[in-house]
Amino acid sequence: MIQVLLVEDELIARTHIRSLAVWEGHGYQLCGEATNGEAAIRMIDELEPDVILSDVAMPLMDGVALSHYLVEQKLGIPIIMLSSYDSYDYVRMTLNNGAVDYLLKHRLDEASLLSVLEKAKHERLQEQRHIGGESLKSAGTIDLHAKQNIVKELVQGHVNSAKQMEVNVHLNEAGFGTRNLVVGAMSIVHYHMMDWRQQDKDRNMFIRSVLELCQSQSEGIVTHIGEDQFALLFSFERIRSESQIASLLQEEKEKLRGMFSKFMNIQMKIEFSRCGLRLTEVADGYRQAQDKLHAMNDTEFGGRDPHSPAAGLSIKMEKQLLGAFDQKDEFDMVALIDRIFTELAEQGASHESIRLTLVEMVQLAAKVGQKHGVAAPTLDRLTAPMQTGLRDAAGPLGLKDKITAMYSELVETLRTREQSAYSGYVGKAVRFIDSRFRDNISLQLTAEHVGINTSYLSHLFKKETGMSFVEFLNRKRIFRAQQLLEEGVSVKAIYEQVGFNTYNYFFKVFKDITGTTPLDYEKRSAEQSG
Fold it and tell me: What SMART domains does UniProt report for this protein, alphabetically (predicted)?
């Protein structure tokens, strides 16, 4: 039975934790309760707990100080932190002192507590076994910054044979073996979208936070290579089993991914080189790990699985949004965004899945803007509210209005750019067609909107576009119909959506412009996508 010491000053919280069905039936026992850190220290010798479950904020001695005491005394007792505050400052302090995990009281339930107790039990057993006599945590004589610089030079290939002996000595002094090495490559998913507008000071603080969190939990040496790229170096000098090393690395990967997702709300890609590297092979090993990283499918990070829309923006939905952008079709754009948010809500998608979907929508908007030559400052201004919302919002479903406003404004920007290619009257007419092509519009109605007579607009329009008004309007409608057919919308459902009053007339115009019938086009599109 794993003995757990509960350290919590609030009676209501202690009562709630006691009532959770995670104890004897799962191999855990509450061996004692303390109301502050000082009382807990007095009980440790007597009760010999395997795990400590402690509040952060308590009188006399808080949880941060208690976790520091456990490390200082080298007691090797895993500590799980509880708090009412979702603050990274608390997370950083406790994790730097070796806390296993950090739970918010208002989200504490049986599943979350049992999960973290299992992690603590595993860590306690690892501590007791010292697998293979291996202890990868380096507590040597050179400081962390120096070790990180050494690893950075190694992975970048800047350590020549003359310098190799010096590096070997430094790492050995740090208690870090230099044989049977493994190097890892790690990158932040969607980093360029999350931080591309931040000032150097903010970006540096963000990178420091990543390093601190990673180093507090990692069994290796972690260093920043540049932008979203990090390297990890591990020594398995006393382990000969490759399968055991692979198992340890998999645990490391899962632990780091979970920590970053939970405490910094970011996703990490992590891959490793082959094992058994020497110092001279670290640079090649890092390139090998990077190659694996680049080959990874982004589906698991909320990307490209059309059958799993809650995990990110599906391929089908991305095509539909691109089609609406191409046509500068704000009506369809708003309808698509409504559908995305409705599906996410109905599927009960997780906070992280929704956030990843929105990140991809911001990324898609930026890509469209760049494709159409929208200036970077304009894109920055358009995406700024969403970027802020993604970092700050407690519930990403509440960002619907912001993403709709961002997309609508980008559509308006694209219309303005298209309009600028023509004279004032024709540009205004083209803009009117873009926004009203699905309605029963005519040359006369457009001329009234523009403010000139019908014959003069017809003359200017033909001169500047090379097409008559009707031909331009029909081409716009048929192009949109082609996009909808490629997206899987049925022929019978399309013709009214793109502004035709009858199917027969739609059929005739479609064949005149494309050279094929709508049914044949639909069939060919289905075969190509299948």
Answer: HTH_ARAC (SM00342), REC (SM00448)
